[in-house]
Amino acid sequence: SQQGEEDPQALSIQEGENATMNCSYKTSINNLQWYRQNSGRGLVHLILIRSNEREKHSGRLRVTLDTSKKSSSLLITASRAADTASYFCATFNSGGSNYKLTFGKGTLLTVNP
Amino acid sequence: EAGVVQSPRYKIIEKKQPVAFWCNPISGHNTLYWYLQNLGQGPELLIRYENEEAVDDSQLPKDRFSAERLKGVDSTLKIQPAELGDSAVYLCASSLETHNEQFFGPGTRLTVL
Question: Which of A34, A46, A77, A89 is 20 to 30 A from A105, alpha carbon to alpha carbon?
Answer without folding.
Answer: A77
